[in-house]
Amino acid sequence: SKSFLNQCISIPGCMLILLVVSGPLRRKMAQSVLSTMPGASTGTVVVKDPLNFWGGKRVTLGHEKNAEPVYEPATGRVMCQMVPCGAEEVDEAIKSAHSAYLIWRKMAGMERARVLLEAARIIRERRDNIAKLEVINNGKSITEALEDIDVSWHTIEYYAGLAGSLAGQHVQLPGGTFAYTRREPLGVCVGIGAWNYPFQIATWKSAPALACGNAMVFKPSPMTPVTAVILAEIYKEAGVPDGLFCVVQGGAETGTLLCHHPGVAKVSFTGSVPTGKKIMEMSSKGIKQVTLELGGKSPLIIFKDCELENAVKGALMANFLTQGQVCCNGTRVYVQRDIMPQFLEEVVKRTKTIPIGDPLLDDTRMGALISKPQLDKVLGYVSQAKKEGARVLCGGEPYIPSDPKLKGGYFMSPCVLDNCRDDMTCVKEEIFGPVMSVMPFNTEEEVIQRANNTTFGLASGVFTRDISRAHRVAENLEAGTCFINNYNISPVEVPFGGYKMSGFGRENGQVTMEYFSQLKTVIVEMGDVESLF
Ligand SMILES: NC(=O)c1ccc[n+]([C@@H]2O[C@H](COP(=O)([O-])OP(=O)(O)OC[C@H]3O[C@@H](n4cnc5c(N)ncnc54)[C@H](O)[C@@H]3O)[C@@H](O)[C@H]2O)c1
Ligand SMILES: C[N+](C)(C)CCCC=O
Q: Do 185 and 316 lie in a common domain?
């Protein structure tokens, strides 16, 4: 099979990914590395290409002001520099997006669909390489990253299918007069992403935006700047007008510039609650529409009549994907008292066998957390939980893989906490790491009240064989999603988003077409004007 680097030739943006070597050898390899190296592995990839994209091409900034190192979580090594865009560059990107928007919005929905389908096809063709880069920059396992890339092209295909279906309503009025409504795009939309699903978040936002006829300027997290620009190149290759999907790099300052820019019609944000509040406040100044996909502390309720093996598997899926750094994770696991011993035994047994290590290896199921500060924060939550009376049944410690190149990586062992109470910090706050808190409950009424006793409301889950109970619980949980007898599946066909402080607006599903379009009413008079004047 072709090596990763050989395959990178087919991704324009990856052509300058070099293996790290020093001195003269490095210069010699610059020409030959793509055809001779045996394949990229953890600890070897350096990204040199510019990571900004507007006007249909990658853009090198004329400065390196405020450059920040970007780390490979599995090794702790610097893999590239992220240079944040300032006011001038943000303005250029938005102007470039606006000129593309003027062309794109006039194209028939079916024409837009054809271009989007081509983008989906290219992503599918290059999924392995995109997934590898995602792993190197994010630390999640290759198995999960491949799934994320598949979800990404599914998303684009799905919205391509809806692009031709934008339609209004015809309304009959007295005297033959009538009105009709049109669904029109908003203009230039901004997407701001978190680091846990870098490529997938970029597609969850851009696919519906573009399908509706908008342009998008996307800002990835400064910690994961590498793959969004590949999406920009793919859209370009698929045939979007230059500028339709732009990428600007940066952190809070760049995000602020985007939210305040008068040329922006909407901000779609994925990230934490505190940042979400700022986004909403900034957007309010320009009366910009906002979608907020924020954090969570979701309850997973396991009744004694559940199919236990599925409930245990569900609890693991609810807690340990992407090293627990998932917004909708079901981290408050409520187990009906009668089955607590069996549940704990099984869940701990399985958690202990999760293979942790090099995320690029097929057998690995848990890679590295995003950063050293994030790792320290999560370990801090475990210490705090112990102080507050929780019992660590397994994990919760730094993990040092045997492979020497992973010694500087941000690994920890997945943790199950028992003896938890609702008032503990680990049960109240979003940890965003592989830490499951387990609590007993007695009755349905009691557990629903406890599950809802939070300011968050992103997701929830219930395991039971009782179909009436399942739907009753789903109805009563205050959350944007309720999984019955599974957890953390999110097919693109179904809406995803929060209640309460987990945000508003939705991603995925047909409804998101409404969040990226606006309604115009046209009233047609068929008689004479009856003037009062
Ligand atoms: N609901 C969802 O779909 C979803 C998905 C993934 C992550 N999340 C949440 O995201 C959080 C983790 O991600 P994070 O640490 O990247 O979140 P974060 O809020 O720190 O950052 C998110 C993004 O906002 C940008 N940003 C930060 N300050 C800004 C400002 N003042 N103005 C504009 N932009 C600004 C960041 O650069 C980044 O791109 C968790 O709380 C998690 O639950 C939610
Ligand atoms: C694909 N998942 C697992 C449902 C995650 C969605 C994005 C949230 O962080």
A: no
Considering the domain boundaries, does residue 532 fall inside one?
no
Is the CB of 327 inside a 6 Å radius of any atom of ligand 2?
yes
Give the number of domains in the chain: 2
Residue 27 has pLDDT above 90, yes or no: no
Of ligand 2's atoms, which has the minimum distance to the CA of residue 321? Answer: 3
Q: Which domain holds residue 367?
A: 299-496
- Calculate how far, in angstroms, residue 252's C-alpha sits from the geometric centre of ligand 1: 10
What's the token pair of residue 403? 């492979």
Which ligand gives the minimal distance to the CA of 218?
Answer: 1
CATH code of the domain in which 378 resides: 3.40.309.10
- Considering the domain architecture, whether residues 224 and 286 belong to the same structural domain is answered as yes
Strands (E), 281-382: 289-293, 299-302, 332-336
Residues with CB under 6 A from ligand 1: 192-196, 219, 221-222, 251-252, 255-256, 259, 270-272, 275, 278-279, 293-296, 327, 430, 432, 458
pLDDT score, position 40 = 77
Pair (330, 228) in one structural domain: no
Classify residue 278: in a domain, yes or no: yes
Residues 61-90: tens digit of each pLDDT:
999 999 999 999 999 999 999 999 999 999
Task: For residues 58 and 106, state if they share a domain.
Answer: yes
For residue 214, what are its two tokens? 């908008």
Does the active-site annotation cover 293? yes
User: Of residues 92, 157, 233, 293, which has the active-site annotation?
Assistant: 293
State the number of CA atoms in the 13 A half-sphere of 101 facing the CB.
23
- Using one digit for the tens of pLDDT, what is the confidence trace for 335-366? 999 999 999 999 999 999 999 999 999 999 99
Q: How far is the CA of 194 from the centre of ligand 1 (A)?
A: 5
Question: Ligand 2 pocket, 202 CB below 6 A?
Answer: no
Residue 267 carries which side chain, given as an amino acid letter? V
CA distance 286 to 265: 8
39: confidence class by pLDDT, cuts 50, 70, 90: low
Which atom in ligand 1 lies closest to the alpha carbon of residue 458? Answer: 1
Contacts of 416 (CB under 8 A, 6+ apart): 344, 347, 348, 351, 392, 393, 394, 395, 436, 438
Query: Is the CB–ligand 2 distance for residue 201 below 6 Å?
Result: no
pLDDT digits (tens, 9 = 90+) for 469-499: 999 999 999 999 999 999 999 899 999 999 9
pLDDT at 22: 38
Q: Which of 268, 298, 327, 508 to mutate to test the pocket of ligand 2 (most atoms within 8 A of CB)?
A: 327
ipTM, 2 decimals?
Answer: 0.96
Tell whether 335 and 285 lie within a shared domain: no
CA distances from 34 to 58, 199, 279, 511 (A): 20, 24, 42, 44
